[in-house]
Write a structure and sequence with these properties.
The complex is a heterodimer of chains A (210) and B (211). Chain A is an alpha+beta fold and 210 residues long. Chain A is built from five helices and eleven strands, in the order αααααβββββββββββ. In chain A, a hairpin with a 2-residue loop joins strand 6 and strand 7. In chain B, 70% of the residues lie in helices and 0% in strands. In chain B, helix 8 packs across helix 9. Chain B is globular and about 50 Å long. The N and C termini of chain B lie far apart (52 Å). Classes of the chains: A alpha+beta (210), B mainly alpha (211).
């Protein structure tokens, strides 16, 4: 078959719907022969038809069953019922220091216990403690979620392990940090406490409501 | 039915083994299957209930259908389902390669089926019970992955298209067009063209064109 593509705009004719009708065997001449002619002169249409045929084949053999509702409900409740091992145990440790908020792009002058004004998509916060400074940006990413992006600057941090964790309700986790102390994590909107561990010292940031 | 502790291999190990054997597919169907999965697993591991709910809804049909394929009893199918998700919620913090979760689920569900099939008297007594072997062929894993990808493509389609295609292709017995029309609220004469249009959309999701 000639390796030409005389149909530079496969969206015009035949459409995906027409190709699907052809794949389903629903077309008769002259529609089917028109499509065969178009396919014969277009590599992209041949690939598109193959994709539709493959999807149809997968669909026809896709014998997945809906589980009973009560079973799904039981599975949904597992998060509350199952005691999972605490992988971020250091978050439960007593803190050595509480950082102070020194800048908030939403509220000036800054105060402990922040409240979001909800007027912009990005909020910038800076915290300071005796041993480190933490810059945090909070981005509203839609669907009820926020992304925290930040960086920890600390004297001698290059020689010590730096960890960042977050706690909100039952949810707690540890963010990835790079060698420069940058971190990011995504969580649902709500009230979050961020903790930073530098070496053996644990520093807590005041609670943030997003 | 008590199943005891299930030996689970780490998800990273499973991926590495399959990579070494050269059977990992980086196709668009696989992409659909793992789309957004890393974030979902990370959030669920951190205790995010909403992420967990999405994980359950995303894989519930896959996990339930594997024991059904072996024609285990209803009770055994439910035990398998519950055991797999209980194992998953416990293992979440240890998942190092979240993109391998579908393979892990398929393999783990199969293993639980194997255990259950040995003790499920109803299944053993069934005339048409399918044998469950201890190991699972790579082609079987790929087949289940393909089914899961189509299932997720249907969920992504949503609306009337999802309802129509599930009715036409995933019902235990294909319903007559009159019943499909009644359940989807569309005229019988629209079912054919709508099916073609929905199939085209599904193909676009499952196998996106290189445009």
């Amino acid at each position: 078959m000639a390796n030409t593509d005389s149909n530079p705009n496969p969206g015009s004719f035949p459409s995906d719907e027409q190709l699907a009708s052809y794949a389903l065997g629903e077309l008769v001449p002259p529609q089917s022969s028109d499509i065969e002619r178009a396919i014969g002169s277009s590599d992209s249409l041949r690939r598109r038809l193959a994709s539709i045929q493959s999807t149809l084949g997968s669909l026809q053999s896709c014998d997945l069953h809906e589980p009973p509702r009560h079973l799904v409900q039981q599975a949904l409740r597992l998060m509350q019922q199952v005691e999972r091992p605490n992988e971020v145990g250091w978050l439960a440790r007593a803190v050595d220091a509480v950082a102070t908020l020194i800048f908030d792009s939403f509220t000036r002058p800054a105060a402990m216990g922040l409240r979001s004004a909800g007027l912009a998509d990005v909020r910038h916060l800076t915290f300071d403690s005796d041993s480190c400074e933490v810059d945090v940006e909070i981005l509203q990413i839609g669907n009820g979620r926020v992304r925290f992006v930040g960086q920890i600057t600390a004297d001698g941090a290059d020689d010590q392990a730096v960890r960042v964790g977050y706690i909100g309700g039952r949810m707690r986790g540890e963010a990835n940090t790079d060698k420069s102390g940058r971190f990011s994590f995504e969580v649902p909107r709500g009230e979050w406490e961020i903790k930073v561990q530098i070496g053996e010292r644990v520093i807590s940031l005041p609670g943030i409501v997003t | 039915m008590s199943l005891g502790v299930i030996p689970t291999r780490s998800i990273r190990c499973l991926t590495q083994q399959r990579t070494e054997r050269g059977i990992v597919h980086d196709n668009s169907m696989g992409q659909l299957l793992t789309d957004g999965l890393a974030e979902l697993v990370a959030n669920a591991a951190a205790g995010d209930d909403r992420a967990w709910r999405q994980l359950v809804h995303r894989f519930k049909r896959l996990v339930f259908s594997i024991p059904r394929s072996y024609r285990l009893s209803d009770e055994a199918c439910e035990d398998v389902f519950q055991t797999v998700f209980t194992t998953l919620v416990r293992e979440l913090p240890r998942i190092s390669d979240p993109l391998a979760l579908p393979k892990w689920l398929i393999t783990t569900t199969h293993r639980v089926c194997w255990r259950v099939s040995r003790s499920d008297r109803a299944a053993q007594a069934a005339e048409h019970q399918f044998p469950v072997y201890e190991t699972l062929a790579s082609s079987d894993i790929e087949r289940w992955e393909a089914r899961a990808a189509v299932d997720q493509g249907l969920s992504a389609l949503g609306g009337r298209c999802e309802k129509l295609l599930r009715l036409l292709y995933l019902s235990p017995t294909p319903p007559p067009y009159e019943l499909v029309a009644e359940q989807t609220g569309m005229p019988v004469g629209s079912i054919g063209p709508t099916r073609a249009r929905c199939l085209g959309k599904l193909a676009e999701l499952v196998n996106p064109p290189d445009r």
